[in-house]
Amino acid sequence: MKMYKKLLTFWSSWFLFSLLFVSCTKELNQYYNPKSELDKNIIEVLEADGRFSLFVRIIDKVNLRKTLGSSAIYTCLAPADDQVTLYFSKLGYNSIDQVPEALLRKYINYHFINGMYYEYDINKIYNAATSLIGKSRATNFTTRTEGNIPGKHIQLFSSSFFENQMSDYLSLYPSDKGEASFIADGVVISEPDIDASNGVIHVLGAPLEVTLRADEALAADTETTIFSSWLEKHVQYVLGQKDEFGWVDTTLYKSFSFGRNLADEGTITTLLVPTNEAIKKYFEPYMGAIDNTLDSVPKPVMYSLIRATIVDNIWYLSDLKRMDPDWRTLAGYTRMIADVPSLITGSVRASNSIIYKVNKVLLSPEMHSVMGGILLKYKKFSQWYWMVSNAGVNEGLYDILYYQHSPKTMLIQSDEVWGVPLAEDLNQKDLEWRKQQCKAGIFNIDVREDGGFRKRFYPTGYGYVYYENGRFYDYTGHSVGLVSSDPEWNGANGAIYQIDGFLNPIDKISDTLTVYNVMKKQPDLSLFITALDRSGIASQLRLTGFFSYTVLAPTNQALTTAGINVAAMNADAARAFVQSYVIPNRYVFTDGEFNGQIADKNNEMLQINGAWQTFTVTNGAGKTITPAVANIQGNNGVIHKVNSVF
Question: How many whole angstroms separate alpha carbon 518 and alpha carbon 362?
Answer without folding.
Answer: 50
